[in-house]
Amino acid sequence: MKNAIEISDLTKKYNDFTLENISFNVQAGYITGFIGPNGAGKTTTLKAILGMIHSDSGYIKVLGDNNALITNAEIGIVMDNSFFVEDWTSADVEKVMRLFYSNWNSVQFYEYLKRFNIGLTKKIRDLSRGMKVKVMLATALSHDAKLLLLDEPTSGLDPVAREEICELLSEFVGDESHSVFFSTHITSDLERIADYIVFILNGRILYQGTKDELLESYRLVKGGLNEIDQTLQEHAIGLRKFPTGFEAMIPVALLDSLSPDLLIESVDLDQIIIFMNKEERQ
Amino acid sequence: MNTTQRFIILDFLTIKPYVTFKNMIIFIAASLFIYYGTQTSYTIIGTMMGFGSLYVSYPFAVGEKNGIDALYLFLGIKRKTVIIGRYLYALIIDISLGLIGILMSVGVSLLFGREYSLIENLIVMGAMLMIFTLIQCFQLPLYFKLGYTKSKFSAYLPFLVIPALIIILGQFFGNLKNTLLPIATWIVAHPYIIIGFIIIVWLCLIMLSVLLSVRYYEKREF
Question: Do B76 and A47 touch (CB under 8 A)?
Fold first, then answer.
């Protein structure tokens, strides 16, 4: 299978927000980061993939099937909020999962809990946010899922916990039949582990492709206010002016047409989001 | 085990943390207190089934607080299975609490040296089962449509409306005693037809409630 997820012309309208005809694919065997600022449409898209909301139009195929329910059993899911009963213990979670997943591996689940230092008798409500994410992750990794879908799993976590989660995800895709679709606004995590990026802004997909290609497509340009020429006026993305000068993002293809006196730096994913977002607002 | 059976177990696992020894003691003490007040052991059955009704709403209340509808989807449970499983769960709770009520009713009768009839206890339980399931047939579609918090007030209306209706209808039919006497005589003469008719109406109302719940829940977004 080439694509773990195929989305075509997906539309979902709310009073104050529209996911507008979005189309993108998630390559099987890789980690794909789903980036965009808060409110860009990441969670809405993920909910549509999982069948939690009904789309107005378009189609979604997950693991080659367009019935979310059939495929959900093959997906490991980590949402930004725990979906377990707060008064359950990790042992209760195990009992529930064992009931429904035919490929459930109790030994593996307990091993993950041990690795994460999560006691079996501790209630979900008594776990920190990071621990709750880890219980969800342990669950997601213990039923032979082919695809991991994660919605902001690292937000609010300390760097150590984030590193642990990123390591686990890298281990998971070590087997090429596994794929990860990882929504986040903490892009530093993705810069380390993602192979592909899907960038969403205001309900529209602005980019889908490899992470390296995206990072190589733009440069950060800095200079004095008097150095803003016609090319920059027309093509600079998210131009920011300060009393001492300016900074903007610019497509690499236009670098040759800029003054050699300008300071050119590489951009990271955070900067791409910030400048694109600023450009949209202008 | 099929998915519906597994879902029913999931419902019981959902409410498990809230089925505490303390609650049980309160329920039993309250039932005995009501029995002491009425001196009718059948009231224990009704009281216990009333408490059962609370547990019927628990999966909605707990589920809403914890976003459990999403978990059902993640586990690959069809929405129709959730509905059918939840109705069956409610029926199991009603019957279980009814049977516990019968045991207590018989126990209390034995303890105080009173006569008891198991058949009468079962008839009372059957009648109570119909009343409570009909109340739940009104409640469950509301829960599935609006969620527990939004429909809590409306869902408990039958507990106020039904006693009021009984009083009003009692007075109304009391005034028409002479007119209704032939009908009452016919009913007494043909109990099985009436029981059959009541059971058919009861089943139709359950079906209608299930269909409404399916319609509402299919549209829900989480």
Answer: no
Q: Which of A70, A82, A85 sits opposite B14 (nearest CB)?
A: A85
Residue A158 at interface with chain B, using a CB cutoff of 8 Å:
no
Same domain for A91 and A231, yes or no, is no
The answer on pLDDT for A68 being more than 70 is: no
Q: Are residues A49 and A117 in the same domain?
A: yes
Measure Cα distances from A112 to A40, A115, A125, A204 in Å. Answer: 33, 5, 19, 37
Chain A: closest CA distance from residue B190 (Å): 48
Beta-bridge partners for A242: A245
Query: Domain ends where: A196, A214, A232?
Result: A214
Give the Cα-Cα-Cα angle B106, B107, B113 (nearest 5 degrees).
Answer: 85
ipTM rounded to 2 decimals: 0.83
Residues A50 and A80 in one domain: yes
What is the number of domains present in chain A? 2
> In this predicted model, what pLDDT tens digit does every residue of B159-178 receive, in sequence order?
788 778 878 887 877 777 77
- A22 bridge partner residues: A10
* B48, B53, B58, B61: CA torsion to nearest 10: -140
For residue A10, what is the domain's CATH number? 3.40.50.300
In this structure, how many other beta carbons lie within 10 angstroms of the beta carbon of residue B83?
Answer: 25
Residues 79 to 118 of A: which have CB under 8 A from any B CB? 79, 81-88, 92, 95-97, 99-101
Which residue matches tokens 């039919």?
B173
